[in-house]
Amino acid sequence: MMHDNCEICRRIQMIKDGTNPYFVAELSTGYVVIGDNQHFKGYTLFLCKQHETELHFLPRDFKEQFLHEMSLVAEAVYDAFHAEKMNYELLGNGDTHVHWHLFPRREGDTTTPGPVWWLDRNVMFSDDNRPSPEELDEMRHTLKATLTKVLAADAEAAN
């Protein structure tokens, strides 16, 4: 169900309508999308299918599956974009709908080691960091192929 004034719900509706160019994959609890800006190449979001404002408001089974799937998406991002370290963030101060920010990190990607948010927002969200349609298509394809492998390995390990 879409909530008025919710940017995440709007993005999910775009996925359902087939108009979100950043969409990578649908999992049982959420949607995988490439981030609009790519200062940190491979920056990906995992958008919860349920509109909740807090992780602990989600039903237990759904929450556990959501967390598990988020970890698989992060593994795929790590592999697909050759991260040295992953940063996982569930914030919600701007967009309250539960969603994960998954940042692949590399040595020297910021002038001072620390969270991505220490970087000047004008730099991080510069239009120069938006992928071209060709770059976006390549990123989506690479992540989707890697995610497919990670999901298959996870399913095999569960058996």
TrEMBL record:
Descriptive protein name: HIT domain-containing protein
InterPro entries to which the protein is assigned, alphabetical: HIT-like, HIT-like_sf
Domain HIT: residue ranges: 10-112
GO molecular function: catalytic activity
Superkingdom as given in the UniProt entry: Bacteria
Family matches, as PROSITE patterns: HIT_2
Histidine triad motif, short sequence motif: residues: 97-101
Pfam families with a match to the protein in the record: HIT
